[in-house]
Amino acid sequence: MKQSDRDRSVRLLWEPQPEPTRGPRAALSQARVVQAAIKVADAEGVDALTMRRVAEELGSTAMSLYRHVPGKSELLDLMVDAVWGETEHTPEGPWRAGLEFFARQMWSMYRAHPWMLQLTTSRRMPGPQAMTRQDAAYAVVAGLGLRPEEVVAVVTTVAQFVDGVGRTMADRVQAERETGVSEEDWWNGTESLWEHFTPERLPMMTYLYGSGGFDRPLDEFEFGLARVLDGLAAFVEAEDRPAVRRSTCL
Amino acid sequence: MKQSDRDRSVRLLWEPQPEPTRGPRAALSQARVVQAAIKVADAEGVDALTMRRVAEELGSTAMSLYRHVPGKSELLDLMVDAVWGETEHTPEGPWRAGLEFFARQMWSMYRAHPWMLQLTTSRRMPGPQAMTRQDAAYAVVAGLGLRPEEVVAVVTTVAQFVDGVGRTMADRVQAERETGVSEEDWWNGTESLWEHFTPERLPMMTYLYGSGGFDRPLDEFEFGLARVLDGLAAFVEAEDRPAVRRSTCL
DNA sequence: CTAGAACCGTGTACAACGTACACTGAGTGT
DNA sequence: ACACTCAGTGTACGTTGTACACGGTTCTAG
C-alpha cells in the first residue's frame, strides 16, 4: 500500500465523508454498502463476500460500489471498524474485571461476525471504533504502576488469545456452513481417519478419546481466558516483576 | 467436503502413495510438488502460492500438478503436515517445560513458514506429523491427575495463544513483503493517522505513545507465553480446581 | 506380438473475481 | 445555457483453479 493509499484509507475511516454538491442523487451510500457487506458476510461467510454479491444485495451492480468505497480492501477495513462500533467500551474499574469485559466484548463480536477472523491478510488500517475500544482497555491497566510497554503487552496478550480462539471458532462455523455437517458429526463421520488413530501411533489421543476427553470439551474461551487472566494477575501483582526481553526484529 | 473427499484426503495424508505400475516415468512426484509449494510460499508469501507459480518452480505446467495432488486445498493440507514434520516431539518431563517446548516448536515453525497462519479457512484435515506432535504435548500433561477434557483444554490454550500471536506476526511479515516498509516505518510514516490520535479521542494511546510504550515493545510471544503458563500453573497446581462449564453449541 | 489399459504432461477453455475505463444521464454552479 | 461534477452501468481484461480432451509412454493380458 503506497503512502497515498494509506492517507486515503485514513481519511476514509477517520474523517466524515464529504457530501456531494452536484450530480445525481445517490441511491447508494458508503454506510449502506458497508452494512450490506456485513449482512452478506454474516449470513454466507467470507467466501461469499464478493463485490458482485454485495451489489446484488443492494439491487445494484458491482461497479457502482466503487463510487462509495475505493476498493474491496477498504471496504473490509470499514466493515471491521463498523463492527467494532457495536461493542461497548471497557468501563473503569478493577483491571481484571476490565480485561475480562474487553475479552468478552471481542468474543461476542467474533461470534456474531466470524468473518472478521478470516479476512485476507496483511496490515489493516485501524479505525476509530477499534482504537477507542483498545484505548479503554489500556486505561483499566494503566493505573497499576506498570511500565508503558507492559501496559501494551498485557492488553495485547488478552487480545491475541481471543484472536486465536476466535480463529478456531470461525473456521468451525465456516466448515459447518459449507458442509452442513457439525464439528462433532464431522469427526464422528470420518471413520477412515480414526482407523489411523491407533495406540501405537497416537497413544495419548486414543487414551483421551477413549476417556471422553473429546466428547465433552471444556469451553475453550472460558477456560483459556481464566488462565490468561490468572497468569496476568501473577505478573501484575508480583512485587518484583520479571524482565522480558524486547521484541526481536523480524 | 463430501465424505468421499474426506476419505481421499485421509488416504492422501495418512497412507503411503501407491506407486504407478504402468505409464510414462513421472518427472514430478507428490513430494516434489509439496516441497516446491512450500518453497514458493516461504519466499513469496501466501498470495503467490498459485498452481501456476508452483508449476513454474518445477519447470512444468499447472495442470501437471493435478496428477500428483487432487487439488489446491489438498496441497495445502500436505504442506502443513510436511512442515509440522520439521518440528521435534515434546520430550517427557515436567509439564511446564514440556508445554514451553511445544509452544517454541510451534513458534519456530510459524516464523519459518508464516503462510501457515494465512491459509484459506475452513476445516483442514489433520495429518500424522501434526497429530503426533499434539499427542506428545498431551503426554506431558496427562500425568497430572487432570480430567481428560482438562488435558485437552490445557494444551489447546497454549496452542491457541501461539496461533493468535503467530497470526499477527504473519500479517506483519506479509505487509512488509508487499510494501517493503517495516512495521515501525509504516506507523512512523503514517502521519495522517497520528493526526487523529489526540488526547481527547485516545487519551491512553497518546499517553502510551508519548511514554515510549510503542517504541520498545516487549516480545509478544515471550511475554504472553509466560503469562499463559503462569495461569496454567495456577490451575494445574490448585488443590481444588475451578469447574469450567462445557463448550456451548455454536 | 498386439490391443487395450493405465498413466503422464500439456493445451485449451471456462467460470468467477476485482476492477479499469468509457459512456450516458442527472443535477449544480457560474 | 453551458460546462462541470457525480452516479450508475456496460464492457473488457488479467488472474486463478480446474474440467476435459489429446497425444504419447509404458505395462499387462490374451
From TrEMBL, chains A, B:
Chain ranges of the HTH tetR-type domain: 27-87
Record-level Gene Ontology MF annotations: DNA-binding transcription factor activity; transcription cis-regulatory region binding
Pfam families: TetR_C_1, TetR_N
Listed InterPro entries: Homeodomain-like_sf (IPR009057), HTH-type_TetR-like_transc_reg (IPR050109), HTH_TetR (IPR001647), Repressor_TetR_C (IPR004111), Tet_transcr_reg_TetR-rel_C_sf (IPR036271)
PANTHER family: HTH-TYPE TRANSCRIPTIONAL REGULATOR RUTR, TRANSCRIPTIONAL REGULATORY PROTEIN
Residue ranges the record marks as coiled coil: none
Organism (species): Lentzea xinjiangensis
Phylogenetic lineage: Bacteria, Bacillati, Actinomycetota, Actinomycetes, Pseudonocardiales
Chain segments annotated as transmembrane: none
Keywords: DNA-binding, Transcription, Transcription regulation
Compositionally biased residues, Basic and acidic residues: 1-10
Region of interest: Disordered: 1-25
SUPFAM superfamilies: Homeodomain-like, Tetracyclin repressor-like, C-terminal domain
Protein name (database record): Transcriptional regulator, TetR family
GO biological process, one term: negative regulation of DNA-templated transcription
DNA-binding positions: 50-69
